[in-house]
Each structure stands twice: as C-alpha cells, then as structure tokens.
Amino acid sequence: MLNAKVSRVSLGYKFQPVTVVVAILGWIIKCMTGNAAFPNPPVPLVPLVPPDPTKPVDMTTRMNALQVAATNAVDGGKAQTAAKNAALEFVFEGMDANAFYVQTIARTNLPLLLASGYTAVSTNRSQSPLDPPSITGIDNDTPTQLDLHLTPITNALGYEVQLLIAGVWTTVTFSSQARTVSLTGLTTGTVQQVRARAIGGSTGQSAWSMPGSKIVD
Fold this sequence. Notes:
Layout: H1 18-32, H2 59-74, H3 78-106, H4 110-115, E1 135-142, E2 145-150, E3 158-165, E4 168-175, E5 181-183, E6 191-199, E7 212-215
Helix pairs in contact: 1-2, 2-3
C-alpha cells in the first residue's frame, strides 16, 4: 500500500477550554474502550481490575481529577489554578501517548482512526462551528430510564449529554448517534432536566441545546 493516503491524528484538543477537553476525552474513552482495533493503548482507558502499579494512571482517573481541579480553580487562588494546570498537563500526556498509538495503527485507514474518537488533522479550510442539536422528544417507556431524541448534526463526531444534578449540569453519557440516547438508572418520581451538545467542528463542540425535562416513572 505504497500510495495509501496517510492521515495524522489531530492534537487540537490542546487549544480547547478545559470543559471541551473533558468532553473530547470522555468521547475517546467511550470509543476506544472495548475497541478490538486498539487493544493495548499505552495509557489504560479505565481503572484496571485488579490494579497494576506498573501501568500508568488510566485516562478515566485523569479526566475525573481534571474535572475536580477545574471546579476548585473557579473561585480558588494560585494554588488551585496550579493544580488545575497540572491536572490538564497530566491529561494531555495520556491523550498524546494514546494519539500516537492510534496513528501508528490507523494512519492509512481514516475511518478506523475516527473510530478511536480522535480526529484527523483537517485539510478543509472552511471548517466551521457545529450547530447545536435540538431535543425533539424525551420518552419514558422503560422504568428508571429516559430516551432522549436529538436532531442529528452534520459532521458531528458524537454528542455529550448532561443532567442537572443538585443544581449542577453534569455529563452522564456520550453517544455516537443522536436519534435515541438512553439515560438509565434514574430515580422514579424525579423530574430530570437534560441538555446536549455536538462534539466536533472548528471549536470542538457546539453550543448546548435548549434544556428539556421529563418526570421519571
């Protein structure tokens, strides 16, 4: 395959706000976990069971630590900001290592590269921000579960979905498609507020959808 076109994994996540970095990393973890094409990433995606002290800290733990550090830095001082920056660099270290791994395997297979959750360096100079999705419906056909229906967004890599939990919008899932996103394990009798955004585009993500709400039966 001497003439195969070679794609490069984009490291554009390094130029995104922390909230977007977390969203992109969550998407990558979802896409690579259990993906037979990428069986041994250099940095594990989720905590190993049993723990293996010889392995690097997994990406899920790094992502969660970054979320906590970013929250603490909002109203914190220099120490909290320094902790956020250190957590961000720790995340980038792992993302970069796994990006090189993905490129080594999939550099001549763009669909496979994209299946990792990473993006390729774009040659499209007209790349633009994504439109926000709209919530077209929320069903409660299954106990303790809501099925969220979104408008598909052209060129979106996936969708991040949040619930309003204790007054804070909290990411609960990432989905590769928009038409039906299932939110499970909810509490019967509660009113759940939900919103979503598309991942991808020149800014890394779209704006959030208008929130929707539904009581859980």
